[in-house]
Amino acid sequence: MKTVYLLFLIFPSLCLSQGEANQSVFTNTTTLEIFANKESNYSNQAIVVNEGFGIELSTFNGVFVFKTLSISLGVGIAFNVKDDYKSIPIVGDVKWYLKEYGINSPYVLLNAGKSLNISGFSKGYSSKLGIGYTFESDYRVQYVVEAFVKSKEFLMIEETNSNYLISSIGLSLGFKL
User: Fold this and answer.
1) Alpha carbon of 174 to those of 45, 111, 135: distances in Å?
2) Does residue 18 belong to any structural domain of this protein?
3) CA–CA separation, 32 vs 97, rounded Å?
4) Is residue 8, in this structure, part of any structural domain at all?
């Protein structure tokens, strides 16, 4: 039965990789995000809305499954400055570029994932939708600029019988190898 599940997971990637005659190109992107938050805490009590901001450092490793489409898996560390929530998000990322392999190209990104519950870090979920552009520095390195909207939910049920929601808009800067 495990073999069937494994084949079920591998088969789509094999099909996608055969869709074009080129070989897969590996990609690595590291970004620093700065975002403004609209925060709300919901529970059985009234909704409380706060303003704040946060920062996140993330790195994504992936492959181009087509010349203009990449999929990646990433990990980061995020700090919500207003109320001091920290998280370690594990995120899946999909980017569609207008030019082949994202060289000097605008793109659209979508990522979603889950935050790990480790030590003092909060567990929860996140999703991000944005647009970006890559600027080629040389053949090996590109600079990345992104604008995005993001939604996060920290699960605080054990502590306060409530969840903490954050909606954000932000900008990220980074580099792509």
Assistant:
1) 40, 16, 10
2) no
3) 20
4) no
- Cβ contacts of 58 within 8 Å, gap of 6 or more: 30, 31, 33, 74, 75, 76, 89, 91
Pairing of the two strands 25-42 and 69-80:
unpaired
Q: How far apart are alpha carbons 156 and 167 in whole angstroms?
A: 17
Note the pLDDT of residue 111.
Answer: 92
Report whether pLDDT(137) > 70. yes
Predicted confidence (pLDDT) at residue 1 exceeds the cutoff of 70: no
| Alpha-carbon torsion (66, 8, 75, 108), positive or negative | positive
Q: Do residues 55 and 90 make contact, with C-beta atoms less than 8 angstroms apart?
A: no
Q: Domain range for residue 94? A: 29-176
Whether residue 167 is contained in a domain is answered as yes
Domain for residue 154, yes or no?
yes
DSSP code per residue over 11-22:
HHHHHHHTSSSS
pLDDT band at 74 (very low <50, low <70, confident <90, very high): very high
The one-letter amino acid at 66: F
